[in-house]
Amino acid sequence: MNENPEIINIFNEVQQAFNLRKPLLKEWSDKNGGRNVIAFFSSFSHPGAMIQDQDRDYLEELLSKMDSTKGLDLILSSPGGYPLAAERIIQTCQSYSSDFRVVVPKLAKSAATMIAFGAKSILLGETSELGPVDPQINYKDQRGELVTRSAYAVVKGVEEILEKIKQSPMNSRIEGLLSLLPPIDQPFLEECKIAQELSKDIAIRYLKMTTFPSLKERKSSQSDNSDCIENKIKKFLMPEETFSHGRPITFNEAKQIGLKVELLKKEDPKWELLLRIYSRTNFVVQNSTVIKLIENPENSFAASIPPR
User: Fold this and answer.
1) Buried b / exposed e across 166-198, counting CB within 10 Å, b at 16+?
2) Angle at which helices 83-96 and 53-63 pack, to 10 degrees?
3) One pLDDT digit (tens) per residue for the chain, 308 residues
4) What are phi and psi of 269, to 5 degrees?
5) CA dihedral over 65, 70, 75, 80, signed as positive or negative
6) Are 198 and 83 in contact (CB under 8 A)?
7) Which of 5, 164, 194, 205 gives the lowest tally of CB atoms within 10 Å of its CB?
8) Do β-strands 100-104 and 72-77 pair in parallel, antiparallel, or remain unpaired?
9) Are strands 290-295 and 36-42 parallel, antiparallel or unpaired?
10) Where do the H-state alpha helices sit in 131-185?
11) What's the CA gap between 296 and 23, in Å, rounded?
12) Is 0.85 topped by the overall pTM?
């Protein structure tokens, strides 16, 4: 029986206090064989909410107090962040559980998809999404405005313009082509290439460990279409396959690629429970000064918008 004064109940509902989410997380654990559960939610509208290195520390604080002999469900909702931070989260979760599963209620994009690659399995709903993992780069364009572009597009665009300049007739005017080049230097271009290779390496390395142990990792040449991991996951790696970094990769596509995905159908009572967890937690990170929540049934870590 709820013995709180009604005004407190109303306040908790409006604020979506942690004590409203705790029993839902406990219920998820109970309905999934007593597995450990951690919810990791971040805002899709604030850049400070991206996956970062310190998130690994918060996760480990929670994991260190849990029974490591049980499985681990990481309920993940995030637009992504730094690839190396994603790799550290994978390593931490794997070190505390040999049965690490990522659960995606709605969207786990970019570096969050990388984390899913490091799981033993991925639980998706019919409307859940993974996404491409090609890195996004910030730089100032020709107008001096800060823009975000895929590293792939930056490299490919510069190389195509330079090739057109190279193919131009002797003594022809190339000012128009030069004006199309972004105001970047060679080291920046090399960083874009390194960022591409880093994301690809993390994705392939952990899928080799969790999903495709019998496949070779990379193709041997541009024309190599053998059944290697790099070719398997082109949709995740190559913007030419998806045309947008935000493009959804759903259960059926992930299954066809060969990922170890499980489907939680909308008729399943556990899907209704997952939506309740999602709705309450996502409301906080999208509609308050809190931009990131990492919590289990006992504890909650919250990151807020830093004061100006």
Assistant:
1) eeeeeeeeeeeeeeeebebeeeebebbeebbeb
2) 10
3) 456 675 565 556 656 788 889 999 999 999 999 999 999 999 999 988 999 999 999 999 999 999 999 999 999 999 999 999 999 999 999 999 999 999 999 999 999 999 999 999 999 999 999 999 999 988 888 788 888 889 998 999 888 888 888 888 887 888 788 787 888 888 999 999 999 999 999 999 999 999 999 999 998 888 888 899 999 999 999 998 898 999 999 999 999 999 999 999 999 999 999 999 999 999 999 988 999 999 999 999 999 986 55
4) -55, -30
5) positive
6) yes
7) 5
8) parallel
9) antiparallel
10) 151-167, 175-179
11) 10
12) yes
Structure tokens at 306: 């830093």
- Provide the CB-side half-sphere exposure for 111 (13 A, CA): 24
Structure tokens at 9: 């109940």
Contact present, 278 and 108 (Cβ < 8 Å): no
Helix (H/G/I), strand (E/B), else coil: 10 = helix
